[in-house]
Amino acid sequence: MSFGEIITWPFAKLMVWLYGLTGNYGVAVILFALVVNLIMTPFMAKSKKSMMRTSRLQPQIQELQRRHEGNPQQLQKEMQELYREEGVKPMSGCLWSLIPFPILIALYSVIRQPITRMMFASSEVVTALKDYFTAQGIEFASSGRTAAYAEIQLSNLAHQYWDQIQTELAGKIDGLLNIDFSFLGLNLGEQPNWKFFLSTDWSDASVWLPALGLFLIPFISALMSYFSMKVANAANPSATGQTAQQQASMKSMNLMMPLMSIWICFVMPAAMGVYWIANSVFGMARDFVLTRVYKKQMELEDAERIANRSAREKELEEKRLETERLRSEGKTEQNANTSKKKLQANAKQKSDERKAALDRAERAARRERLGVQEQEQPASQVGNRRYARGRAYVPDRYTNPEGAEEATAAAALESEGAASIDETMEDDVLLAVGEIPTEANAPVEDEEKLGDSE
Predict the structure, then answer these.
(1) How far apart are CA 153 and CA 271, in angstroms?
(2) Which of 208, 219, 318, 330: disulfide with 200, CB 3.0–4.6 Å?
(3) Residue 54 burial by CB count (10 A; 0-12/13-18/19+): exposed, middle or buried?
(4) Interior/surface letters 382-401, b for 16+ CB within 10 angstroms, e for the rest
(5) Domain locations along the chain
């Protein structure tokens, strides 16, 4: 047995079994497509799930592309990390979707060579049949497309003259099966002829009607292929996250594939067109079911992920608040592994904070005793930058749009010519009375003297 026969053996056995079960070649081809789709469902489910997961990541992927524009190495690293966290393997969807093509090639071989590849009869059987029908005055093409389908022609002739060849070729056609290629009045072993309009006898319905049926098979196949891709794209949300170039490429592919199916069905036996139609119909049903199942599953996963993230954030916030409370009470435990340098830095920071707090309290008390008014801070101030948000900044410009224009103009007028830095008024006041303290904790009696001098 050759390598090609090993590859086609399971498909040939399946076709023979289905034909024996139904007694109809067209029904056997349709059931063959159904069985193949059922076998492929687990693999196509992986492809569908991977594609849906990848499409749901499009917003995050676009954000990474925007953030790391001009840095492809970092972008690739971030995307790989995102795929790892989400459990997505982008290439797996493409690999599983390629499996139907070897099946299609094997089925084509079984249909094109029914005697040697489907029935596994020897080449001597083909030779014996060809010699017999040549002697009967039937001609066979020696080259070209017609010669490639010589075994289909021989199988058709063997079916028509079955009783006769069983007698006259006894012992020479062992393994040959009586296969009827007819289906709904069509011979699925024949090729559709796109020029049948010019050579058909339109006065005889038994002639032009089958020819018209064969002619329509490629177009029905293309239509089903187009609808199959439309259903897949409509169920797949990746289109919402695609760029204009990607959407244009997808649109072109959606048009090219049906056009290719028209060409393929015209150059191959009609049985391939029937298989293509059935495969598209079963594929649409499978895609619809898988989409609904995985959509619900991923919605549950998203809800669980959001709940876990919220719980984690809540837990971290509670820990942060508890740590701050313990730190304020001086009850935080010191890490035994903390270095001496870090301990000294922490102690200095705490000392500086206490000193700053005492300084602020002392300055506030001094200003109060001296009768100094705190300088009013504008709403636009950030830190000591008085107009960081703009000199015409109005906090309620959105919540109170009616008065926003007037308030903005007033704020701009008030800030005109004012200093942009908020300096403390303590030095100015003390300069006015003739003394500037050099220490934050100036003696109270000196301050009282300053007050008396006023």
Answers:
(1) 14
(2) 208
(3) buried
(4) eeeebbeeebbbbeeeeeee
(5) 3-119+177-298, 352-374+425-454, 378-419
**Tokens, residue 354:** 């206490």
Exposure string over 131-149, b if 16+ CB within 10 A, otherwise e: ebbeeeeeeeeeeeeeeeb
pLDDT in tens, 216-236: 999 999 999 888 887 777 655
C-alpha 84/C-alpha 51 separation (Å) is: 15
Q: Are the C-beta atoms of residues 221 and 311 closer than 8 Å to each other?
A: no
Lowest mean pLDDT among 80-89, 145-154, 342-351: 80-89
Q: What is this structure's pTM?
A: 0.61
Could you tell me the two tokens for 224? Answer: 């089903």
**Dihedral over Cα of 89, 90, 91, 93: its sign:** positive
**Structure-derived torsion over alpha carbons of residues 286, 291, 294, 297, reported in degrees to the nearest 10:** -130
The answer to whether residue 312 scores a pLDDT higher than 50 is yes
261 and 225 Cβ atoms separated by less than 8 Å: yes
Q: Does 350 have pLDDT greater than 50?
A: yes
Please say whether the beta carbons of 214 and 186 come within 8 A.
yes
pLDDT tens per residue across span 118-172: 888 888 888 888 888 888 888 877 666 667 788 888 888 888 889 888 888 888 8
Confidence of residue 292 (pLDDT cuts 50, 70, 90): confident
- Phi first, then psi: give them for residue 187, nearest 5 degrees: -95, 105
